[in-house]
Amino acid sequence: MIEGLVLTHGAIGAELVKVVAMILGPVAGLAAETNEGRSALQTADVVATWLAGRAPGAEGLVFIDEHGGSCASAARLGGTEAAGVPVLSGVNLAMLLAFATWREDLPRAELVQRIVDQGRKAVAVVGAGR
Amino acid sequence: MKLVLARIDDRFIHGQVTVGWGQWLRPDLILLASDDIAEDPWQARVYASTAAPGTEVSVLSLGEAAAALRQVPGGDREPPRVILLTGSPADMHALMSLGVPLSRVNVGGMHFAAGKQQLLPSLYVDRDDLAVFRALLRQGVRLAAQTVPGAREVLLDDSLLASMEARL
Asked: Could you give the ipTM of this predicted complex?
């Protein structure tokens, strides 16, 4: 089992997780947290708590919305590197759908690549702008 | 060095600084002044890694930061434009006590912690913070809370601090 944490500004993460559940049904082991109202170190504590609270033996992935920001700092300061948990920035709906869809079937390294590929594919010009 | 912004922000280097103020002020250098972070190279590296490409980051102790900021620019070259960040009013005041001339301080973000009360949406303070704000005001510093350029600026003056103190 690979568990996921979506750590974002404001309610972006919570809303994304909500929409994933609307599409796929409830997804166990996918949590959302925000940096809102928290200092960098307080947000890092949230990450550390999530890392410590994973099911025994569960691997992890952390999604953040922006590479250069307090969520990125907090994810690293919270101990993801020491725990060997990858941090993926630029989270979008496609990435979370990929996570929920393939996390049981792919080893984590392949899952990470699949998620990144799906996330990038989802950023496209559609309709009249093409 | 040319100080273009002195900011108190317990998130240090993040989007409001790198994107919000950074695009407005075009700093050459972000100087993060903190004894705790300066003595932890890994933490310093993490914060430095979040800056925008092209912006240099220095993480220095308060003493080192003060020494760097006290230097008088010389020569014909334009001095580097600097955003100075501290994580608390006490650290900003300490820099001033170490001889850094500050006329304006931006209070960007002080988040909730035990014993602190909300003064403004992104500003939680306790009596110690208020005492430092007062000390800065007495030294002629213009204190203003503003998260990003274009957001509402709130002057932290004696009357606002007094009203806050009454609530603590």
From this structure: 0.76
